[in-house]
From TrEMBL:
Gene Ontology molecular functions: cullin family protein binding
PANTHER family in UniProt: BTB_POZ DOMAIN-CONTAINING PROTEIN KCTD2, POTASSIUM CHANNEL TETRAMERISATION DOMAIN CONTAINING PROTEIN
Pfam families with a match to the protein in the record: BTB_2
SUPFAM superfamilies recorded: POZ domain
Residues in BTB domain copies: 4-107
GO annotation (BP), single: proteasome-mediated ubiquitin-dependent protein catabolic process
One GO cellular component, as annotated: cytoplasm
Protein name (Swiss-Prot/TrEMBL): KCTD2 protein
Amino acid sequence: AASKWVRLNVGGTYFVSTRQTLCREPKSFLCRLCCQDGPELGSDKDETGAYLIDRDPTYFGPILNYLRHGKLIINKELAEEGVLEEAEFYNIASLVRLVKERIRDNENRTSQGPVKHVYRVLQCQEEELTQMVSTMSDGWKFEQLISIGSSYNYGNEDQAEFLCVVSRELNNSTNGIVKEPSEKAKVRHLLSCTN
């Protein structure tokens, strides 16, 4: 009976895995190499009995991990194109599709360009501050609160005034024209500036 464990020498680096893992993709190079009776791929073995595979071991890790748990995990320092090249070499079709999707998604993200923000400075008195912040909508986020002192009030009390800086991402564009959503928050004074 063949051993449950298989030793691979990929470009001088040793990997150990089970036959079950290597045969997750029945049409793959790895399954044909060491899991089928009378392997159709003639491959040399080194002095330790490990199958010799002349490929880059750096990119073999994501291939083996995908066969182990079915998830695509690529370290930041590895190029996705390198993992794609190895997935194609080892003939792991489901992994080829996943890597191509990830590359396409990354290209789409970078082609959209940098995210733009709209900043607004809202002026309000202390008594209006809570209501103003709580009624912000359409993706507005609180950025900063600046006290600008007090204003004269007809009563005996001074009212503290504030500038409230809010921002919102502008990521919904059509044909290069950025559309700003309707503003629902009502405030006394509004100054707008776009970054």
